[in-house]
Every structure is written in C-alpha cells, then in structure tokens.
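check this:
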Amino acid sequence: MAVFFFFFCWSEALAQDQPAAQSRPQTNPQPAQPPNPATAPSAGNSPTDQPGANQPAANEKPQDEKKEEKKDDASNPAVGVTKQVADATKNVGEAALAKARDWERGWFVGIYVQKGRRLVPMTWQQRQDIYFQQTLATPAAYLKIMLDAGLDQARDSPKQWGEGWGAYGERFGSREGQFIAANSLAMLGNAALQYEVRYDQCRCSGFWPRARHAIVRNFVTYDRGETELRPQWALYGGAFGGGVISSAWKPHPRNPFAEGGRAMAEQTAWGSLLNLFIEFLPEIDRKIGTKPKKQ
C-alpha cells in the first residue's frame, strides 16, 4: 500500500513539471507550396512587362512621334516656304491666264473701255500706242483689208488690174496703203481735237439699247472732257482722206472724190460691225466657253 501511494505522488510531480507549451495542443503547419510558374506572375511576365503590351502596331507610329512630326512640319521653314511658293505660282498662273485673255482680246479688236469703267483722257503716248496697235498689230485690221480686197476682186475694180492672185495682191496692197493713210489722218485729227478714239461698252442692258449704242458710237465720240458727245469728224475725215490718197496709185480713170466718198461709206459699215462685236464680246465669250472677264 505504501508503495502504491509513493508511485502516485511521483507521477503527479512529473506532470506539474512539464512545460506550458506541451500542455497546449500542437498544430502541424503544412509546408509552404512552391509557386506555380504557370499561374504566378514573375518579374518578366507582369502585364506591363509583356512584350508588345501597350506598344504601337508595326504600321502605326507612336503618338509622341506623330505630335513631334506635326510640330516639325509647323516649325520647319522649308515646308512654309514650299507652300508659299505653290500659292504664289498658282496666283501668278491665274493672273497670267487672265492677262493673256485680255491681251488676246485687245490684240484682235484693239483697245476698248469695258463696261463700268470710267473714260480717262489719254496722253499723247497712249494715242501713239493705240494708233500703232490698231493700224499694224491687230488681226481685225488685216481682216478688214482682206475682205475689202476680196470685194474689189469680186467687182473687178479696178479692171486694169485683172484677175488672179497677182491682181488680188495689188488690190490688197492698195487697201493696206489706204488704211494706213486713213488711220494716220484720223489719229492726228483726234489728237488735235482731243477726242476719244476708244470704244466704250454700253452701261445699259438689253439687246436693242446696246446695239443702238454701238452703232451711234460709230458716228459720235467724247470730247476732251470725256462727257460730251461730238461728231466723229476726225474718223470720217481720215477715211475720206485715205480714199483720196489711194487714187494716186490707182490706174486711170480715177476720181479722188468718189474714192473718198466710197471710203466713208465703208467706214460706216465696218465701224458699226466692229463696235457691235466689241459690245457683245462677253456673250460671245460665254458661247465659246470662255470665262467672262471680271470687272
């Protein structure tokens, strides 16, 4: 009995001497699992580090480069100069075309005053320029001479010159000399009187008012003030004088006064037709597809 009691006491003493940690239940922590390379992000496989992420396409430039190119184009002096040269070339080309059209008109029918423009008294130099242009440089003048020579050829006038191309050449030369003499006398007379020698397009509208203006202006012109109308003394006086002078080289029989009167009648018809052509030149331009000239 005593032995049993001693063994019990010794067991209790041993139980009280155990550490506190052993009195609590022990947990068995599981070992840490290694990260799965297929799922865990690595330093080289983060979304921002993926190759091609947030990168522009192969055929597309980065936005910074685009902005830089635009900035370079705006600040590049070569681009600005090229644009200015292109615009200047375009403007010069348009002005040259307009100038060529104006020159072509004036070269064909002579100098005239467009509708809406004010007549300004001419200087002596301007009168000389108009005289040389309308006498020697305009195709309309040579067309008139060719037609007059053709009519003389058809009428066989004068008969002494016969027929054929040789006779036509003589009649053409005679008409050319008469035309130069008539224009020279008219230029001197208009310069002395200071009368207007240019045709001015009518400021009115409508066919008949404009046609009447064109025909009437063949008989009257403006004085030195460009306001009052006066008879075309110098124009018809020059035509009469040219006809008289032409009788000097025509074969006999010849009548200087008859030649002068015939020349005045021709001026009546030819001058009216030329004025009508100039008056309705804008409409003719539109018919043939030419852009009307800006005033």
About this structure: The first helix runs from residue 2 to 16.
